[in-house]
Amino acid sequence: MRFQTYESTCDFEPVKLSYAIANGDALEVLSGMEHKSIDLIVTSPPYNIGKSYEVKTSIESYLSTQEEIISQLVRVLSNTGSICWEVGNYVDKGEVFPLDVFYYPIFKKLGLQLRNRIVWRFGHGLHASNRFSGRYETILCFTKSNEYTFNLDDVRVPAKYPGKRHFKGPNKGQLSGNPLGKNPSDIWTTIQEDWDSEIWDIPNVKSNHPEKTIHPCQFPIELVERCILALTNENDWVLDPFAGVGSTILAALKNRRNAIGIEKEEDYCRITAERVKALENGCLKTRPIGQAIHVPSANDKVASVPKDWENLSIFGERRGE
Fold it and tell me: Mind listing the pLDDT tens digit for each residue in 242-273?
């Protein structure tokens, strides 16, 4: 196992936290890790869609390789730990294969229990022409046992109707909600919008996102933070076996957890180390958790129908002309 030079103790007052980035093959690195040493695993594995850092294979071969890695992940996971497995779809010749459906039996066979299937919705992405454009991915949350960490109070969101009261029964007239807020459910949106639709409506990392690096499909830190806050305690250990440019590591350190990342691309390991240093120095650019998603006003040029299109028949029909 090779940890490069990317191993350090970070000084986040009033605690010191440890992090490490292993530059190497996930299966090889995991095989050298201690049993039951990790409290939470959060990752987004390669989707087998031909990105620059992956070699596209048949879905059967892809899943077989992933099963070996997952078996090692289950081994290093503590008895009270959880795995959050974020995936999209594998597409072959226009046919969609929902990866969470294929992954579920692998985790189940290894004895894990599914606690949530979370929908992450985002507003931007590739535009399809022969099917509806994909705008969501899923996070499968598994636990190793019935005794697992879950800190609901740390991730509650504002209630839509905080003044609502019981209208019958022994508690009639009493407030029915929790003063700390409501459970955000398994479909999330942002704090600013009060999670009304209860969808994790967190922007994906595109060109104008403050966290954007050279990685083609990096994790937004905000997405990882809620998983970490709910499923670990301070000073716990968080692992990402496909660490990319370190979003999981940053989310862990930012919230006073220790972290290990495994990444085979050396450039991504270097970028992660630079981002951690920026976090330590207080100059890392991130999208604040729960920040409202910008919605252009009707007067913004980008939201107006271009003059070039005004004579097209479809716009005339919509105006009733």
Answer: 999 999 999 999 999 999 999 999 999 999 99
Q: Strand, helix or coil at 80?
A: strand
Number of Cβ atoms within 10 Å of the Cβ of 36: 15
Residues forming beta bridges with residue 18, ordered by sequence position: 9
CA distance 109 to 63: 14
Q: Cα(178)–Cα(16) distance, rounded to whole angstroms?
A: 34
CA 191 vs. chain centroid, Å, equals: 16
Strand, helix or coil for residue 209: coil
- Measure the CA–CA gap between 38 and 43, rounded to whole angstroms: 13
Separation CA 223–CA 219 (nearest Å): 7
pTM tops 0.90:
no
Where along the chain do its domains lie? 7-295
Q: Count CA atoms closer than 13 A to 78's CA, side-chain side.
A: 15
CB atoms inside a 10 Å sphere around CB 259: 30
Radius of gyration from C-alpha coordinates of the chain: 22
Residue 225: half-sphere exposure toward Cβ, Cα within 13 Å: 21
Asked if residue 131 has pLDDT above 80, the reply is no
Residue count of the chain: 321
CATH number for the domain formed by residue range(s) 7-295: 3.40.50.150
Q: What is the mean pLDDT of the chain?
A: 80
Please name the residue that has the structure tokens 């987004």: 44
pLDDT tens figures, 67-81: 999 999 999 999 999
Q: Which two tokens stand for residue 302?
A: 């980008």
Q: Give the span between the Cα atoms of 196 and 115, in whole angstroms.
A: 22
Residue 32, SS3 per DSSP: coil
**CA distances to 133, 264, 320 from 314, in Å:** 21, 50, 10
